[in-house]
Amino acid sequence: MRPRSPRSILLGVALASMLALSACGQQTQPTGYGEDYQKNFMLGCNEQTAVPEENPEVTTPGPEAPKNFCECVYDGLVEKVPFDDAKKFEEQQAKEDAGDIAVPKPIQKVIDSCTKDG
Predict the structure, then answer these.
(1) Which of 36, 108, 34 lies closest to 76 in space, CA to CA?
(2) How confident is the model at residue 42 (pLDDT cuts 50, 70, 90)?
(3) Is the dihedral of CA 79, 80, 86, 88 positive or negative?
(4) By the 8 A CB rule, do 114 and 73 touch?
(5) Is residue 1 included in any domain, yes or no?
(6) Is residue 77 part of a domain?
(7) What phi and psi, each to the nearest 5 degrees, are found at residue 48?
(8) pTM of the model as a whole
(9) Tens digit of pLDDT for each residue in 68-97?
(10) What is the pLDDT of residues 1-13, one digit of tens each?
(11) Strands 60-61 and 49-50, sheet pairing
(12) 61 — phi, psi (to 5°)?
């Protein structure tokens, strides 16, 4: 198995954050790529919060990916990854620990291309 890059882990956390954000409140789950999905993705990618297990009430700013990297990944997902596959990956991330994230090959290719470009 190929080691996961910090950006792969960051994207996994971003996707999990996006899923959590879309589940909050009265929002319905997105059924395709669109404005709401993009906003949640960018928020999760750019503005993460670190929540320590020992004291979840005390949060700190987490790692942030550059905006152009997040935009590149989102655009790549839209162009190359069917929405249902991205959604399935999001749901998987909500259940996994960060170190256990297995990024599907099509999503990893998008991340890798954005890493090379950025």
Answers:
(1) 108
(2) confident
(3) positive
(4) yes
(5) no
(6) yes
(7) -80, 160
(8) 0.64
(9) 888 999 999 999 999 999 989 888 877 777
(10) 445 555 555 565 5
(11) antiparallel
(12) -60, 135
